[in-house]
From TrEMBL:
Belongs to the methyltransferase superfamily. RsmI family. The keyword Glycosyltransferase does not apply. InterPro entries: 4pyrrol_Mease, 4pyrrol_Methylase_sf, 4pyrrole_Mease_sub1, 4pyrrole_Mease_sub2, rRNA_ssu_MeTfrase_I. Catalyzes the 2'-O-methylation of the ribose of cytidine 1402 (C1402) in 16S rRNA. Keywords: Cytoplasm, Methyltransferase, rRNA processing, S-adenosyl-L-methionine, Transferase. It is an enzyme of class 2 (transferase). It comes from Candidatus Woesebacteria bacterium CG_4_10_14_0_2_um_filter_39_14. The keyword Cytoplasm applies. Transmembrane segments: none annotated. This is Ribosomal RNA small subunit methyltransferase I. It catalyses: cytidine(1402) in 16S rRNA + S-adenosyl-L-methionine = 2'-O-methylcytidine(1402) in 16S rRNA + S-adenosyl-L-homocysteine + H(+). Its EC number is 2.1.1.198. It comes from the Bacteria.
Length: 229
């Protein structure tokens, strides 16, 4: 059986009891970064508990790992998959492994928990009944603009709140492209969710661009908007 275990997106106290029980129950934990997972497990480890075997599983070695993992699962080994933060497969490794499990008739169980898109949406003040999550937009400006144009076209018939991730290195360029397609609309920008320097602000795109010109953006960003609200 494969368990998809959600882990904290910043604050270690956000992990669930079920997630901890699962991680100390399984024989193997597949980790995007074994060091981060070791620190998390070691933080909660009780004296009588032993750590599971930690195996690296990230985007670059995913295709190589999948046959090995499927073989272990078919032997009856219980395995958990975690990423550096949040829910596995959501803009993180795991989708291809889950698909392989379905093809191999291997049971997959999701252990829900922290999710930055949902946390950002809940506190954004934007409509929550329908939303579209874009993950990370493409690196190239032309491809980003095309994506935003397709989103704008789809919103003509479906009013949804749009959510996407961005890094501190690309957020200014992404916001410039967003402004080109949607105009100078009001957006919500969440930074470093659940961490010490967490911020959630609502401003026009131009105001965020001015802010980032003065103060270099740092941390991980979630951007949300609903151009009809």
């Amino acid at each position: 059986m494969l368990y998809l275990v959600s882990t904290p997106i910043g604050n270690l106290e956000d992990i669930t009891l079920r997630a901890l029980n699962t991680l100390f129950l399984v024989e193997i934990v597949l980790c995007e970064d074994t060091r981060k997972t070791f620190n998390l497990l070691n933080h909660y480890k009780k004296p009588e508990q032993s750590l599971p075997k930690l195996i690296s599983y990230f985007e670059e070695n995913e295709l190589k790992r999948i046959p090995e993992v499927i073989l272990e699962l078919k032997k009856g080994t219980e395995i958990a998959l975690v990423t550096n933060s949040g829910t596995p497969t959501i803009s993180d490794p795991g989708f291809k492994l889950v698909r392989g499990c379905w093809k191999g008739n291997i049971k997959v169980i999701s252990i829900p928990g922290p999710s930055s898109p949902i946390a950002a949406l809940a506190s954004s003040g934007l409509p929550t009944d329908k939303f579209l999550f874009l993950g990370f937009p493409p690196n190239k400006s032309g491809q980003r603009i095309k994506l935003f144009e397709n989103v704008k076209s789809s919103l003509e018939s479906l009013s949804s709140t749009i959510i996407f991730f961005e890094s501190p290195f690309r957020i200014q360029k992404s916001l410039e492209d967003l402004k080109e397609v949607f105009g100078d609309i009001e957006i919500v920008v969440c930074r470093e969710l659940t961490k010490i320097y967490e911020e959630t602000e609502s401003k026009k795109i131009s105001e965020f661009l001015e802010k980032f010109e003065i103060k270099q953006p740092k941390g991980e960003f979630v951007i949300l908007f609903n151009h009809k609200n």
